[in-house]
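Q: Structure tokens for this one, please.
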Amino acid sequence: MNPLPTIGSTAAPRGAAHRNSQILKKLRFITLSLLAMIGSNVSAHADDFDDGIEAYHAAQYADAAAAFERSLEQSESAAAHHNLALSLFQQDKPAEAAWQLEKAIRLAPTNQSYLYKLGALRQQLGLYKLPSTWWQSAANILNQGTWIWIACISFWIVVAVILLPKIAASRRPILLKLTLSFASIALALSSAALIVRKTQQASGIVITNEPTELHHAPASAAPEAGIARPGERARILDQHNQFLKIQTEADITGWIHTGAFQEL
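A: Here is the predicted structure, written as tokens:
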């Protein structure tokens, strides 16, 4: 009969090594599974995107739109929104096409091709480019996700530079002082850009292909307050049930049904 393992025996380490080996195998399996899942999603996204391009070139615009929508469900991209906009425009859905181009520009704010096409489409809809201030233009140099990333990184750099010398009970060297200055400036600029984008950018656009009545109250029978044009930008001020109170780029305020307005 074998004695129980003692402290000096090798049975325990072997058991621990076996357990570690099993854990590593499980971790490898999980990692490979995640990579396979990501790879399949990327492959599906690419396949749908390519299918959309092929359908568009074959003048099968409804099929192209469906393929680009599937591609966006897998992974959002400015290119997919742009191509979906072109597919919708070919189906005589200019307002929905304008929404897709607006979305593409939110993701790629400096793309001149997208900006030109949106400007041409808005002009066709009777909407003209409004003058923008220098701070609005500056806030649109980068997309919102990039500004958020800069703000987060800058914030933690500022916190680290302030706290580390106190924890180490030492004076802050000149390099850390310069780092603190640059990080503080980056934090201030990114925060200002995010505030400008939040408060001065449109909340969404009117997606009906015909002018839509705005009402003085959240009810279809309420008196008319004005007209919202197809593709017109607007800011959401309030919501009540199935109605949104909006202010259009023409400074007309009124209530519109949620089905006629799509947020960006």
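A few notes: Strands lie at 204-206, 212-215, 224-228, 233-240, 243-248, 253-257, 261-263. Residues 140-200 form one domain.
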